[in-house]
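Database export, one record per block. Field names are fixed; values are copied verbatim from the stored entry.
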Amino acid sequence: MRKIQPLLGMGVIVLLWASLGQAWVQSEGQLQNLRVEKKERVLKVLIHLNRMKTFEKFTLDNPPRLVIDFFQVKEFFCDSNIPVDHWGIKEIRVGKYEPDITRVVFDFTEKQPLYEIKRQGERLVVSFWKEEVPKKSGSKEEKIKKAFPKEEPPLQEKKNLRKEEKKEEVLSKQVPSSGPKFREKRGTTVHLSLQEGFYFMHSAHFQEVYGKGMWFIGGEVGFRFPVIRENHLSFLMGFNHIKGYGEGSYKKSRVQMTPISLSVVYLREMGRFTPYIGVGVDYYNFSEDSPEVYENPLYSKETWGGNVQLGAYISLFPSLSLNLFGRYHEVGFQEGPLDLELGGNEYGLSLSYNFQI
C-alpha cells in the first residue's frame, strides 16, 4: 500500500491538471459539431461553435468548391472528412488552415449548386438547392427588376471584384482539392523528447545507502496515431540513466541503472492540454560498485519488469510541448541469497519536439 500511495497522489494531480486544462480550452474558439440534414428540396449543413467571432466565405474552381474560414477558432471536434454524395456535393472537409483559423471545405462533383449562408447565434446554417425555385409571374421581385434594371457596376466596384478574383486564385493553390491534407489534427505524429527527473526506489536498503531519490536523465521517441476524433494511441520507446552515490558511512558506494521502456499510451486531446495513461515493459541494466574498488562491480545484472504511467502534454508551440509525467516501476531480481528490488516511482518532465509524417 505504501508503494501505491505516491501513484494515487500523482493521479489526483493529473486529474486536477485535466480539469484546469478543460476550463482553459473552453475559453478558446471551438468548432464543436457539424451535422448534415437531407430534406426533400434542401440540404442543410449545421455548423455549431462555442464562440463565433467572424467568418469568411469564398468559392474556388477546378474542382468547384465552397470554402468557409472561421477566425479565432483554434480547435474542431468533428470528423475531418464527412461524405455527403447528394445533389453534387461530394464531401465536407474540416481542418486547421492557420493556428487560429479553422476551415470548412465543400467539395462539389459538378457545377456549384445554389446555396445560402445564415448565422443563427453561435451556429452557421449552410443551405443548398439543386435548382432555383420558380417564381410566380408578376411577383413583387420581377416588378422591382423591371422598374430598376441592373446597371453596370462602377469602376471602383470592378477593381474590388478583380482583387477578389486574384485572392481566390491564390487561395486555390493553398486549399487541397481532396482529402484532409491540413496541417494539424490528423496523421501520424512523431515526437522526440529529452527528459529528466527523480527516481525514488521502493527498497528500504537502497534508501538507507543512497537516499530516497536519485536524479536521472534520458530520452524518448514516440509515434502517435489518431483513433477517433480527439483520441489517440502512442507507441513509445524511452531510456533513462539513473545514478546514485552512497551517504553517511556508504560514501564510496555507487549504483547505476539504465532502464529501457517500451510502452503503449492512450491520449485524449483537450486543446493545448493532452492527458494520457499507459502501460509498458522495462529492461533494466543494473550495477553497484564496491566501496573499495570502483572498477570491480559488486553486483551486475540484467532483468525485466513493468510500469504504469500517467502524465500530460502541454502545447507551448505547434511543434513543441512540455510533458509532465510519473511512472510506477515494478522490477527486481534474485540470485542465490541476494534479493534486490529495483522498482520505484519516477517523476519528471520532458521537452518534446513534434512533427507529422
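Remark 1: The first strand starts at residue 30 and ends at 38.
Remark 2: Residues 165 and 263 are 52 Å apart (CA to CA).
End of record.
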